[in-house]
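quick q for whoever's on today - can somebody do inverse folding on this one?? i tried earlier but teh output was garbage lol. tokens:
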């Protein structure tokens, strides 16, 4: 096990930003810490990186206790949300920066930086200033600067938040490809479930400083532990019966307009490649939501038949 977090707590005043959490990260995996604003995910990342001192608990990296170690002494690289690049230096100088603390001469450092530039797709940009680069190119420079020092652990803080929708998709693929190419254990923080599902091997879902659920993306979506996990991950219609919670995901509903009917289209929202429909059922106090491709078209007020099955949250 590369990383072990044991009973970690960080208190600010009377509030536990991180509340007695423990988890492990295997080598060469990509872990996402996912959750809403203020849930403690960035505090965890900064504690692992050494930028925040925990109130209690321990951080073990590669069998070494690094809890009290200074950030610069930890074999960890962090890419911050703002990227933290030097605007007065060009691309190659930014990438080489960390190597000067390892006693590597300038020529060798530049050779290594050029190799990294090829891997992140920035060959030809080495002499550009940071303000001449796009957001995606700046992120690649930040990743290259972190990877060149060959850390045991890479930390990414909201890596895609400054990018537009199309570039987010591209950079998700780039991050996953680089993580696999370097075989580097990576932890990244995000509030966006699409980011997490696209790249993570494992996801920690946080809520109010605690770990709500730790699972692979498939299990987190298909087997939410409780109502918070259900509501935060994906869309669903919730049905409560006799103190039990059931749910219906949009893809669990089949909709047709011929033959018998059991509900009515109450709302219709065009979303580009799909249309979201809200169906009010006749016999139960239930409103279903479903996304259909734009070739299937129903109108508000139209009678339909919704075929679906409940699934129970197993929170015992």
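ok took a stab at it. sequence:
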């Amino acid at each position: 096990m590369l990383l072990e977090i044991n009973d970690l707590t960080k208190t600010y005043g009377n509030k536990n930003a991180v509340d007695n959490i423990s988890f492990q990260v295997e080598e060469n995996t990509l872990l996402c810490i996912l959750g809403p604003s203020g849930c403690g995910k960035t505090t965890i990342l900064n504690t692992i990186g050494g930028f925040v001192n925990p109130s209690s608990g321990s951080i073990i990296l590669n069998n070494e206790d690094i809890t009290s170690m200074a950030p610069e002494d930890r074999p960890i690289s962090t890419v911050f949300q703002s990227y933290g690049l030097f605007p007065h230096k060009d691309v190659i100088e930014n990438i080489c920066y960390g190597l000067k603390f390892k006693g590597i001469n300038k020529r060798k450092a530049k050779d290594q930086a050029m190799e990294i530039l090829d891997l992140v797709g920035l060959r030809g940009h080495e002499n550009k200033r940071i303000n001449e680069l796009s957001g995606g190119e700046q992120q690649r420079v930040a990743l290259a600067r972190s990877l060149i020092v060959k850390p045991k652990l890479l930390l990414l803080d909201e890596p895609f938040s400054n990018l537009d929708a199309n570039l987010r998709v591209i950079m998700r693929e780039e991050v996953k490809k680089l993580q696999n190419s370097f075989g580097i254990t990576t932890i990244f923080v995000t509030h966006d479930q699409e980011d997490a599902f696209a790249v993570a091997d494992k996801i920690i879902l946080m809520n109010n400083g605690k770990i709500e659920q730790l699972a692979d993306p498939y299990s987190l979506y298909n087997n939410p532990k409780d109502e918070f996990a259900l509501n935060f991950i994906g869309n669903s219609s919730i049905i409560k019966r006799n103190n039990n919670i059931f749910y219906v995901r949009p893809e669990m509903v089949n909709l047709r307009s011929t033959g018998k009917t059991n509900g009515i289209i109450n709302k219709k929202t065009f979303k580009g490649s799909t249309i979201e429909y809200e169906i009010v059922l006749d016999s139960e106090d239930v409103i279903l939501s479903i996304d259909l491709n734009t070739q299937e078209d129903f109108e508000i007020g139209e009678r339909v038949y919704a075929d679906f099955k409940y699934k129970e949250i197993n929170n015992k």
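fwiw Helices lie at 41-49, 91-96, 106-119, 135-147, 165-182, 193-199, 217-222, 227-232. also The domain at 3-222 is CATH 3.40.50.300 (Rossmann fold). so keep that in mind when u check it
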